[in-house]
Amino acid sequence: MLGLLRRITQEVTAAQSLPAALDIIVRRVRRAMRAEVCSIYLVDTNSKDYVLMATRGLNADVAGSVSLKSDEGLVSLVGRRAEPVNLEDAHIHPSFHYLNGTGEERYRSFLGVPIIHHRQVLGVLVVQHEDKRRFDEGEEAFLITLSAQLAGVIAHAEATGAIANLNPNAIPNGSDFRYKGVPGSSGVAIGRGVVVFPPADLDVIPDRRTTDFDEEIHDFYQALDAVRQDIRLASNRISQHLSADEKALFDVYLKILDDNSIAGEIVRKIKEGNWAQGALRQVIQAHIAQFNRMDDPYLRERASDLRDLGRRILSHLQENAPNIAERFSEPSIIIGEELTASMLGEIPIDKIKGLVSVMGSGNSHVAILARAMGIPTVMGALDLPYAQLDKVDLIVDGYLGKIFTHPSEALTDSYQQIVDEERQLEEEYETLKDLPCETLDGQRLSLFVNTGLSADVARSLDRGAEGIGLYRTEVPFMVRDRFPTEAEQVVIYRQQLEGFAPAPVTVRTLDIGGDKALSYFPINEANPFLGWRGIRVTLDHLEIFMAQIRAMIKASADLHNLKIMLPMISNVAEVEEALALIRRGYAEVKEEGYNVQMPRVGVMIEIPAAVYQVKELSELVDFLSVGSNDLTQYLLAVDRNNPRVADLYNSFHPSVLRALLSIVDQVRGEGVGLSVCGEMAGDPMGAILLMAMGYDVLSMSSTSLPKVKAVIRNISMKQAQNMLNEVMKLSHAEAVTQTMTRLMREANIERLIRPSKTTNVD
Questions:
Q1: Which of 126, 611, 623, 750 would bridge 112 by S-S if both were Cys, CB 3.0 to 4.6 A apart?
Q2: Is position 365 annotated as part of the catalytic site?
Q3: Can you tell me which residues the record assigns to a coiled coil (predicted)?
Q4: Which fold has domain 447-701?
């Protein structure tokens, strides 16, 4: 049964259209369950009716034209209950309703299961028999499992507009297709999409229109010849070590490459208007799907051979393709299945209008980087047909996490007004650059910045930053193919320390692991966020830790503005060990003749265990800095990079707010510095609450700083504390944000955060 499910799922996923996918389902399920009828009903998003979309066994001629009301019939009963209905004689059930023209009057037994995606019922999958008998538990379980697989296909089709309206008499919209993601970085971008993808990954190659057929066909045949040559060379190189049977594998590869049918199919796809890489992907994937459907294990294994050859051809095609930077003649919206920092690094910043990533969440590192650069971003757009969006007009709404494709003139005009308002707000922020961040009643709040790139220094100073609250040292480690030397690190850290001197610069020791990987130091774990990361890695590798500590201290010579911060602290022993090593490193640097002072040392509070040991930790160090991103993630048991649970990740969850307040209460009167350096600090709503709790330093991206300053300068500490008192009584995160939005509107400060029209455009 498992093999059958896998094959049906593969066929459905490979289907070229929604009708084709639905037909595969009803045909294969009817045969697998030996049912006389299998049908699929989908919910019309406008009328909420259940429309018969595909059937085997009933009258197929009425598919798409007959439907049941949302409160009519057994199908709607399945939908309302959101659970299976299994009847041996459907006709006697009070909810039974005969659907004219279908020919279902002779069928007695009925099993219907809901098709659910993200808690929304999209339709119902039904099987029926003429005789009166109840479907057994195994059959019911099979259908439930299959409907769960089908849900993703239906949701994707709905998102792409394929089933935007199932009413055959409705006028098609044709534009303003909307996709939902997760807000990554606020702002609005209007422009044309450019799809980017990692090299030699066949599955993520987008479709791209071309008119230069001859050049694309020439490039394809050139790549084909190059792969043939590679395989012959490989075969000759190791032939003496292989048996005749093993050498035959290379002959199989060459036969596939010489198969004119596959090459011919790819050329036909190119002549139909797709570029060579897209045509290659289409044909190879179609053949892989055919192999995967075969019952013979040997033939199924040939799918992996074909995939390998497809990647080899793609690799040669990409070698001759233009550099990614050369593709940008104008500022564009960058789209990818999983955008990475290295991808962004290949694109000129002035050519990036907006970012859209299918994978990831609002607290992925790409989103954090986008906020630092002020680029409107949407993450976690799981249903986005990204491969079809190259050179397509788009609107990215980073406030609400929405993407619109083929936007109408009216929608574009509405969003252009938001862009104009954003520009006006930026001009208003500019006037605050040299003013202190203090409340109306004189309460002073220090605003620092989080940095990771050398370019951040000038940008941060230009926005009025008072220091660096978090310098992420892993960034210069991630852009290299080896560990940077101690001397190289000295130069890197000196740029940050010198740029802000005499203001303090907090440098975090290497924080790799989790979702931050080094290609030359791989950490493969089943649960990386609970594994070997942060201080755990560096204390296990003293050569890395000591080189970094010495480099930091040397970089601070004559400046004396260095603060060292230790990440992922979970117990007192880790701090004691790290402090001893830092003192040793300081002594070694002093012996070398550098004019340095012992830096102040602090720890990050980002693990629940540390929250409960704040008092003990504060007795060992000079300052504490709350990393609200990881603290929220660990308190709520939510992977912040997983878009499927992105809605559960919320820094305004009452448990998070109580933990933050508890930290302040525990160290009050201890004389230890206390700051927040997570993304919550850069959210004006979060900044108000953190200030009211008693945090006196907030560190954020440079683009967030002007907004936070504008809000703090237009509110009193008393107002902020009243807001805090009101939300601390609430038990839902959504209630906290709604209440804060209302209170900020009443205080006339919501207008300072985002353009007024952002809540009206949809």
A1: 126
A2: yes
A3: 408-435
A4: TIM Barrel (3.20.20)
